[in-house]
Structure formats: C-alpha cells, structure tokens
TrEMBL record:
Native source species: Cucurbita moschata
Catalytic residues, chain numbering: 190 (proton donor), 197 (proton donor)
SUPFAM superfamilies, per database record: 6-phosphogluconate dehydrogenase C-terminal domain-like, NAD(P)-binding Rossmann-fold domains
Domain (6-phosphogluconate dehydrogenase C-terminal): residue spans on this chain: 186-479
Function: Catalyzes the oxidative decarboxylation of 6-phosphogluconate to ribulose 5-phosphate and CO(2), with concomitant reduction of NADP to NADPH.
Catalytic activity: 6-phospho-D-gluconate + NADP(+) = D-ribulose 5-phosphate + CO2 + NADPH
One Gene Ontology molecular-function label: phosphogluconate dehydrogenase (decarboxylating) activity
Name used for this protein in its record: 6-phosphogluconate dehydrogenase, decarboxylating
Known partners and oligomeric status: Homodimer.
The UniProt record lists the keyword Oxidoreductase: yes
Binding annotation for substrate: 109, 135-137, 193-194, 198, 268, 295, 457, 463
E.C. number: 1.1.1.44
Keyword NADP assigned: yes
Amino acid sequence: MAAPAKPTRIGLAGLAVMGQNLALNIAEKGFPISVYNRTTSKVDETVERAKVEGDLPLYGFHDPESFVQSIQKPRVIIMLVKAGAPVDQTIKTLSAYLEKGDCIIDGGNEWYENTERREKAMAELGLLYLGMGVSGGEEGARNGPSLMPGGSFEAFKNIEDILVKVAAQVPDSGPCVTYIGKGGSGNFVKMIHNGIEYGDMQLIAEAYDVLRSVGKLSNEELHQVFSEWNKGELLSFLIEITADIFSIKDDKADGYLVDKVLDKTGMKGTGKWTVQQAADLSVAAPTIASSLDARFLSGLKEERVEAAKVFGSGLSDVLVPQEVDKAKLIDDVRQALYASKICSYAQGMNLIRAKSNEKGWDLKLGELARIWKGGCIIRAVFLDRIKRAYDRNPDLANLLVDPEFAKEIVERQSAWRRVVCLAINSGISTPGMSSSLAYFDSYRRERLPANLVQAQRDYFGAHTYERTDVEGSFHTEWFKIAKQLKN
C-alpha cells in the first residue's frame, strides 16, 4: 500500500459507511488523509474508492502504529466507530502511539457524559479530545454534513480549517459548523437534533396517514402534494425525500414500494436519550416523546394484527367514514404539520437551553439553527425563521411566543384542530400532532387544572401547596374536614 511522500494532514479511524464517506470528503477538499480500520478489507475498499473518485490524496494503513506515525504533528484523528465500548477500545489502541498535544475526535452518536469522561482521561495523558456530532447520513458525510464539535477549544482550532471546508455550505449563512461549547455539548446537541428528527418524521408520517386513510389519496397524488409542499414553508430534506418515496415503484411486484415496507420502525437510541433527558431536566417534550412511543408501538406488529381482529367490528358504529373535500383536507394537513413542527422544535431548543444552563455551556441557539440549515437530516427553510427568532431575542423563553411564530400558529390553529378532530373521529392515531396541540393549549393557558393535582398530593401525602392570594406554603387536613362534612 503506497505511503504518503510526507505526513498527512489528518487521520480517520473507522471505515463503515459514515467514516468512509467523510474520509473521501476530506481528501476531496484537498487535505491528505490517512485511514485505518480494524477490518483491513475496509481500508482497501476505501483506498480503491479514492482512486476511482478522482485519485484523491487518501492513504490506507493496516496497522494502528504506522497509521498514527503517518500523520503530521500535532496529530488529529477522527474516530467513526460504534458508540460505547468500541470507542474506548479504539482510543486505547490509538493512544498507545500518540504524543502530547495530539487530538482525538469522536464523530459518532455518543452519550455526552462518555465524551466528558474521555476528555478528562485524555487530558491526563496530555491529549486533546472533541466529541463531534455529524449529521447528514451517507450523502451528507460524502458531500457536506452539519458538524457539531464540542470539547477542547484548542482541539477545535487545530482542525477548524478542515471542518469549515468539509461541512455543508449554505450560500447566505456559511459553512454548517461552529464550535458548540465545552465538554460533551457537541454530542448533546447532536442527540437533541436527532430527537427533533424523530418528531419531524412522526409528524410527516401522520400527515401521510390522514391524507391516505381519510382523504384516500393515491401514491401519485401524495407525490404531487409533498412535491408542492416542498416549494413553500415546509421546504426541507425530509419533505423532499418523502415526495421521492411516493414516486418509486416496486421492482419485485406491482404497485409502489412504500406499500410493501413493513410498518415497524427501527431506532438507535438517541431519541430515547432525548426523552430521558427531558425527564431529567423537567422540560416538557411531548411531541418528541410521542414519536418515540409511536416507534415502540410500531414494534408490536404481531400484537397489533391480533388487536385489529378483536376491535375490527366493534368500532364500526362509532367510526363513521368521513366525507372530506380533498383540496381542503390537503391544505388543512399542511397547516397542521407546520404548526406541530413549531412545537417540536420549540421543545428541542428548550432542552438544549436547559442543559446549557445546568452545565454552563453558554450555547447559542440561533447559531445551532444556522448550522442545521444544510447537510443535516432536519435541514429546512424553517430554520431561517428560528435563527431570526433567537437573533431578535437570545433569551426567548419559547419559540411559540416569538412574534412571528405566534402569529403563524394563531393563523393555523383552526386547520390544526380540524385535522386532529377528523383523525380522532376516523380512528386514525396522530400522537405527534395531538401532543403538539396539547402542548400549545397548555402553554397558552393562564390557569391549568394543576391546582386539583396539587390538592390531591396534599390530601394523600401532605406535600403542601401554595395559594393564589397569600404568600407561603400551606397544608390542609383534607381528610378530617371531608369526614366531618360526611357526618
């Protein structure tokens, strides 16, 4: 295997789909790169791709020592391996050959506390460490991802010139990368990005379900609708690929491929982590949580098949087929989808801010919206509005109360309510849209029925309560008073 004439600018370890594509992207941008993978066939495959895709300056190594020695000092190595133990193992393998001042960057979807643990351990060895979220999937890694590096600022400066060129480029707002902040902030932000992505995908699936099940739209019509939506306020990567999906015929049988795909969703864990963090931080994230629940329920395929038999005939009197105006339904669903999406992003941004406050990360929410505009899975024209909202008011309590978003939600709420009611009366579950609407309705109300819940807590557990008219904490002997009244 040909060795470089002089040390390469950077190294990359881990040549599965993301690693291989990111390595080729870096090489294509003019940075000579060394690559290594424990399974050597992946190294050979990547070197061959580099030749085919333009004789790119990429050099493969079968052993970790020669790989590390081939990189210029201070060395920078990106790892793209499976989260957890494989990351620790890779660090152990590489750090045996690294010297003080060298840097390791974890580009995987890692739990942020693992990154903080590793950063401390690396610092004791005199090494720098970054946890860097990479979004955009295979295509993004190859042609320009959204990059979210967090950890050592010194380490970021060592590689900033590469990241700026490798990241997705958006004409009006620049490269989709910024230094996120200290510690595990890069991984945390990527995790919440994925949680928002869960919400987005669920909301789009619900829009599809209502249009197909109630509106009886064909795949051809759905393709037209989503293509049209992708020209307006919903313009985004996910809407674009959804339109594409509806146009693809099955190559194994008649009809469209989407109808043959099993209704059972997989997941890798970042959505679950997001919901767990919401609970830990006491931040309401019902849209994201309902999207996770929807994935859990989708996994119960066999149980759902049996339940359909049990309830098939029993609901026929209640669930009356709805007569709908197709054009009106399409427009209502568009508005409901947009309003629900605002709630999902508001929840994600509130989670990031809460963790930033807890950890002292000083994260800039507007800047996060900017770097998500290109390269990543949730890239959308909608993110311009989010950036503007935080530019107007960096301390904005919630996206819902930004004047621009508040106006848009008010304008769309009638359509939103119609879609949710129509779905309920048709027996179509819309947990994302319904929970988004409930979130909005709870957040906009001056008084909630939580007074009763607090009274119940004080009744059975003497947890005390506050009053609306007098300062202080109070406890009432509810049981004794109720007993006297009964007598």
